[in-house]
## 1
Amino acid sequence: MTQHPSHLLCFLLALVLALSACNGTVDLTELNSQELTAKMLPESPTNAFANNASAAALGQRLFFDKHLSVDATIACASCHSPDHGFSDPRAFSVGVRGQLGGRHAMPITAAAFQRFTLWDGRADSVWAQPLKAIENPREMDLTRLELVRVIADRYRNEYEAIFGVLPQLDVTPTRGKPGMTEWDALPTATQEDIDRVGANVGKALEAYERKLICADTKFDKWVRGEASLTTAEENGARSFVEHRCARCHSGPAFSDGEFHNIGVPSTDPGREAGLPQLLSDVFNGAGLFSDDTTSGQVKLAEAATETATTGAFKTPSLRGAGQRTFFGHASHQETLRGFIEDIYRNGRGGRDGGRDGRNATIGALDPQLQGVFVPDDELDDLVAFLHALDCPSAATELVAP
Ligand code: HEC
Ligand code: HEC
């Protein structure tokens, strides 16, 4: 390509950011970083507290509180480390009682951009996700019933000021979540009261997570005309467009938010198992605790039509990818270059479904991988470009209520 940088810029923006930047509909260059982030960040209609400052302040305290785990040893931040862009520098996270998980803990700095959260998208919002980590026996292993007690003991005033009075829990057992006989014996109305607290904890955490967006990278500055890219970075940007990375790594987060099987070596069924869980989840956007069931239903109806879900995982955001220490849902590569070489160069995915004859370990490769192939001599530049998406260091000071 021999385009003038400004044309390339428009070309890239149109493709990568999926904004109509070239015809002047959105003039990105006139926005400062905060405005740009605000414009890019989608609304979260199923959470009425998503932009509530008090909820964000509560969410921040919850995020760092180890009392959200059964033995008070693990906080959200234990696996989503602020010092590592809110992701886990380890291949697999360690939960309560030293237990190892089976997927990489991705950063949460792009969660608010996503239509679905988690690698298999079994949550359709950011707020529906936390209770899954809290109740996961390998992660935090606190039940929703214990969670209500933690909130009542430690956060009663803050919680009630935002979400209203906490339920009275004098008569209920100690531990309780669906599947436990103690829980199943509770009256439906009590179960609903408890579930609502779990949903609200999620909504406060989402309000906080919306403030952790990875923005203002060198790339964003370049878009605003405040920084220039090196020749290597510009060449890498060209490779990114030419080799069709933006087919899936599109939009402001460099993720289409959809699910693809790109042949990462693992036998994890991914979306195939995640989709039915999402559709039957009481915390989904069409459920009792959603603040906008209409939009929730629309999203679920779309999800229900997905096909070829076996071995498909959510396209990760590439913001901050260069700062990660493990890549792919199963952490099978330790460097950005190694991942690109393995998947998009040696052709696990790549040309004709596997240059060296390899194919998907489970399910079938996504047809959108056809023609995706990065030549050896472009790898360094591509990696350089992705480093232009490195996130500025995380702000961990308390958000003002
Ligand atoms: C024991 C480690 C561990 C703990 C504790 C933990 N997480 Fe995670 N988190 C993970 C792993 C592993 C994944 C990916 C799991 C998957 O996709 O199945 C993940 C995924 C996520 C995602 C999805 C991001 C995306 O883009 O889809 C969000 C959001 C998140 N966690 C937030 C939280 C919050 C909030 C808490 C505290 C309530 C928490 N996590 C506690 C390990 C952990
Ligand atoms: C067909 C859709 C698709 C295309 C095209 C595509 N990717 Fe991906 N990419 C994905 C998915 C899905 C994953 C996660 C797969 C997994 O873990 O199972 C991923 C993972 C990655 C990761 C690892 C990120 C992390 O945090 O684990 C990088 C880096 C990456 N892609 C870069 C690229 C580049 C560079 C290109 C172009 C050469 C490209 N991708 C083309 C869908 C795609």
## 2
Amino acid sequence: MKFPRLGSLPNLTPPAAVAGFILFFALGGTAFVELQRSNFRQPIAFNHAKHVENGVSCTDCHTGVETQAQATLPAIDTCLNCHQTALTSSAEEAKIRSAAAAGKELAWVQVTQLAPHVFFSHRRHVSVAHLACTECHGPIEKSTAPPQRPWRVLTMNACIGCHQQHGVNADCNDCHR
Ligand code: HEC
Ligand code: HEC
Ligand code: HEC
Ligand code: HEC
Ligand code: HEC
């Protein structure tokens, strides 16, 4: 995109110029968020399948999932419980120890994320309703690399559809707080 030099800006009246700038930044902001979402790399090419096959359970790493709203993504200390010394010759695995040596966290990107106006609690769905992770997230236990997009997108209709099946209230205020 070419930016006009200051001297060549058209002679806009102040309100029109202000509106123009607001529109410019609003559109730029949206494009930037889209770019971040579809074009990122997780700090390590984490392999769910390998860990699940080795008997590591979902709650070992997503420690909030039975007791809190947020499932949570694991802190590096969780990985170090098993990876303090090398289990494999994988270069990805070595990144855990070099991050730890540098005193850094692993900055995982959350991919499945609702708009902030929607309230969702894992505890309610996992511990009270006893739903399987796969109902909402798809077959994660088989995935061998981090996804760029959610395995399954939960739209409002998907939430309400399941609530109707289970005879659960679907008042606007239950989800929008
Ligand atoms: C009823 C649907 C549903 C079920 C069942 C469910 N999740 Fe989720 N999960 C969601 C939604 C919706 C989000 C996005 C939440 C948000 O934006 O706050 C999410 C987000 C996550 C996240 C990333 C962000 C975070 O910290 O919450 C992880 C990790 C996760 N879920 C793991 C699990 C695991 C593990 C299970 C099974 C023990 C599970 N989920 C069961 C719907 C579900
Ligand atoms: C409860 C033990 C345990 C925890 C906790 C754990 N791992 Fe592992 N990890 C393993 C085992 C077992 C293997 C497989 C070793 C093999 O293939 O022989 C493995 C293998 C790996 C590998 C190399 C294999 C591959 O191809 O991907 C990476 C990378 C890895 N883990 C990353 C992580 C990260 C990142 C964390 C923290 C989010 C973590 N692990 C937490 C037990 C664990
Ligand atoms: C050894 C640690 C570990 C185990 C065990 C583990 N996860 Fe994860 N999980 C992670 C890490 C690290 C990420 C972020 C990187 C990625 O997406 O692969 C993640 C991401 C996720 C996400 C995506 C969150 C998002 O932002 O969209 C879901 C859903 C999830 N895990 C569910 C599960 C389920 C279900 C199980 C059990 C079958 C499980 N996990 C077992 C470490 C683990
Ligand atoms: C079971 C939960 C649930 C109920 C009940 C519910 N919603 Fe939603 N609503 C959602 C989810 C999830 C989204 C999507 C959020 C996202 O995109 O991350 C949403 C999105 C919306 C949006 C924004 C649309 C958009 O494009 O982002 C509006 C407006 C809305 N809901 C209104 C309502 C109204 C009005 C009612 C009552 C008639 C209602 N909702 C009931 C879960 C619910
Ligand atoms: C696979 C089925 C299923 C899906 C998908 C699902 N839910 Fe639920 N949800 C339930 C069940 C069952 C309950 C009732 C739990 C109980 O007994 O308390 C519930 C309860 C709730 C409650 C508490 C109900 C109340 O009246 O206060 C909220 C809030 C909620 N869900 C939000 C959501 C949102 C938001 C989504 C989508 C992002 C969603 N749910 C997706 C099955 C589901």
